[in-house]
Amino acid sequence: MQTHLEPSSPHIERNHGWRVWWQLIRPHTLTAAFAPVLLGTALAAGITDISQGMFFAMLAASLLIQAATNMFNEYYDYKKGLDTKESVGIGGAIVRDGLQPSTVLSLAFLLYGIALFIGIYICANSSWWLAAIGLVSMAAGYFYTGGPLPIAYTPFGEIVAGFFMGLLIILISFYIQVGTVTVESVLVAFPSFMLVGAILLANNIRDLEGDKDFGRKTLAILIGRNGAINLLMGMFIVSYAWIAILIFIGTITPWVSLIALSLPKAIGAVKGFRTNSSPLQMMPAMKATAQTNTFFGLLLSVGLFIQYFL
Questions:
Q1: Per residue, what are the HEC states of the chain?
Q2: How far apart are CA 128 and CA 276, in angstroms?
Q3: Other CB atoms closer than 10 Å to residue 223's CB: what's the count?
Q4: Most confident of 4-8, 24-28, 101-105, 222-226
Q5: End-to-end Cα spacing for the chain
Q6: pLDDT (tens digit, 9 = 90+) per residue, 236-282?
Q7: At a CB cut-off of 8 Å and minimum separation 6, what does 255 contact?
Q8: Per residue in 126-155, is it b (16+ CB within 10 Å) or e — as a string?
Q9: In contact, 172 and 118? CB cutoff 8 Å
Q10: To 5 degrees, how large is the angle CA 159–CA 148–CA 30?
Q11: N vs C: which end of the chain shows fewer Cβ within 10 Å?
Q12: Distances in Å between the alpha carbon of 23 and those of 79, 163, 179, 196?
């Protein structure tokens, strides 16, 4: 049975500078919340005048929920023994920097509370049905690593993350501007479902061996390392091909082919996983996967804005 050194132990270096708190929210993951909000708003720009207040409220709520989810992940991975000072790719605020676990958990719930108040503003200016959707989204963030059977321990992590942090954020961001959801918005949002899921798949490829030792049953473990890398490549291919098809059938204009500029990141991610095997060596490939999602979403948004305003 693995045990933990308490953060108050002299064996753990204590560092409560602002950088520790900044790293606690895992800022490199926040683009996964920003890009979908921007994309949903870009889709709405071709239909209605954009409410800046609603855009920034949605953006703030999404970023807060993402940051809180990261803190829940930090807390529960520590409690379950997954995170140590030697672990690769973690925030490390508890095991390396000595933050009290209870502080991390309390801060996560505080961010959820702030997001809830922002959600009330959004609902008051759009639809109260969004309150139920928002609460389910927050529950998904908590139960991703919390609860008796965390989603992260199952083969469904990629689907849950892709749906809530990709597809759903785009459609909510679109809905609060337009007041409805269109077929076009769903079609254009679909690649983000794939690419956000790809971020989780990349994480699970990197952590495959360690997750096995802790009894996780992630998709990467079930289909094996080579199968997971092939799936990652397939998710990239489907995402780019999907947009190409939408251009071909006239749903969107060729301006959105700007997404091709993000292709080198996707190619680099797949190559990185194929040629490296240790968690540390795979970090650049995981980073490239996250950057693919970010650049894809931003470039797609730019292409849509050009399509609507030129």
A1: CCCCCCCCCCCCCCCCCHHHHHHHCCHHHCHHHHHHHHHHHHHHHCCCCCCHHHHHHHHHHHHHHHHHHHHHHHHHHHHCCCCCCCCCCCCCCCCCCCCCHHHHHHHHHHHHHHHHHHHHHHHHCCCCHHHHHHHHHHHHHHHCCCCCCCHHHCCCHHHHHHHHHHHHHHHHHHHHHHCCCCHHHHHHHHHHHHHHHHHHHHHHHHCHHHHHHCCCCCHHHHHHHHHHHHHHHHHHHHHHHHHHHHHHCCCCCHHHHHHHHHHHHHHHHHHHHHHCCCHHHHHHHHHHHHHHHHHHHHHHHHHHHHHHHC
A2: 48
A3: 14
A4: 222-226
A5: 63
A6: 999 999 999 999 999 999 999 999 999 999 999 999 999 998 988 99
A7: 303, 304, 306, 307, 310
A8: beeebeebbeebbebbbbbbbeeebbbbeb
A9: no
A10: 45
A11: N
A12: 19, 25, 37, 21
Name the token pair of 72. Answer: 């829940």
Q: How far apart are CA 246 and CA 255, in angstroms?
A: 12
Nearest partner of 216 among 309, 145, 140, 134, judged by Cα: 145
In single-letter form, the type of residue at position 122 comes to: I
Local confidence band at 16 (pLDDT 50, 70, 90 cut-offs): low
Residue 47 amino acid letter: I
CA dist 167 to 78, 235, 282, Å? Answer: 30, 15, 27
Residue 285 corresponds to which tokens in the numbers above? 């490939």
* R_g of the chain computed on alpha carbons: 20
Residue 163 gets which letter from DSSP?
I
